[in-house]
Amino acid sequence: MLSQKKEKTLAQILKEQKDMKLKGNLYHFTQIKFAYNTNRIEGSRLSEDETRFIFETNTLIPNGNSQNVDDVVETANHFGLFDALLDRVDHILSEDLIKDYHRILKSGTEDSRKDWFNVGEYKTLPNEVGGQETTKPKDVGKEMRKLLINYNSIDEIKLKDIIEFHYRFEKIHPFQDGNGRVGRAIMFKECLRNNVVPFIIEDSFKAFYYRGLSKYEEEKGFLEETCLAMQDNYKEVIKRFLQKFDF
C-alpha cells in the first residue's frame, strides 16, 4: 500500500503535476509509458520515441515509414483518457464513467465512423477475445451492473480485487473494441483511488499478461504475479521521480 507522505497521495501528486504542465516529471513519464505500452499490446506500430514526440509536441515526424492514422489518434486519445482518469480518480466505478473512457479513447478513429460500432456505448455485435466467447451483446448491461455492484460493495478494495475486476471485465468484453485499454486504465485508476501502487502492463510482458487472463479460472496466480512484477517496475519509477515518497 502507498503511504500518504506529507498528506499527499500519489493520485494528488500526479494531478498536481498534470495541472502544472511541467515536463520531465512522474506524470510526463507515465503518460508516455502508459500510452505506448497499452496501445502497443493492441497492435499499434508507433515506437516509444514517436509516442513521446506526440505527447511533447502534438506532432509526429515519420521516420521514413507511413503511420496508421488510428495509431496516432488513439495515442493522443489515451493522453486525454489518462487526464480524465486523474480528474475523476475519486469517483467510484460506474457504467457512465467506463463508457466515457471508451468514448475518449475511440473518438475520431475509423471505428467511430461506423454506425454499428457504438463509441461510448456497449457492443451491438458479438465478439471474442483470445478465441474465447464473451458475453452476448443483449446481456452486457446486466452483467456489467452485476460486476459493478459486487465490486463496489467491497469494504476495502485491495490489489487482488482490482485484478479480479479486470479479469471479469475482459471476460464480458463490453465494447466492440478498446476493451483491453479501457480495462487497464480502470486498473490504474482503481489502484490510485484505493491507495495501492498502480502499474503499467508492459508490452514485453504481453504473453504473460494474456496467459494470466486465459488461465485465470484455473490459476489466479499467473495474472497476479504479472501485475505484481509490473507494480515493482512502477515502484522503481516512483522512487526515481519522488525520492522521499514512502510506500
Descriptive key words:
single chain, 247 residues, mainly alpha, Fic-like fold, two-stranded antiparallel ribbon, globular
Portion of residues within helices: 55-70%
Strands ordered across the widest β-sheet: 1-2
Classification by helices and strands: mainly alpha
Number of helices: 10
Low-confidence stretches: none
Number of strands: 2
Distance between the termini: 6 Å
Radius of gyration (CA) equals 18 Å
Query: What is the class in the CATH system?
Result: Mainly Alpha
Mass-distribution shape: globular
Beta fraction: under 5%
| CATH homolog superfamily | Fido-like domain
> How many independent structural domains?
1
* CATH architecture annotation name: Orthogonal Bundle
Could you explain how this protein is built, in words?
By secondary structure, the protein is an all-alpha fold. The protein has a single domain (5-241), classed as Orthogonal Bundle (Fic-like fold). 58% of the residues lie in helices and 2% in strands. It is built from ten helices and two strands; from the N terminus they run H-H-H-H-H-E-E-H-H-H-H-H. It has helices at 10-20, 26-41, 48-57, 69-87, 95-106, 137-152, 159-172, 179-193, 206-214, 221-241; strands at residues 128-129, 132-133. It has a two-stranded antiparallel ribbon. Strand 1 and strand 2 (132-133) form a beta hairpin. Helix 2 (26-41) packs across helix 4 and helix 9 (206-214) packs antiparallel against helix 10 (221-241). 34% of the residues are buried. The model has no long low-confidence stretch (mean pLDDT 94).
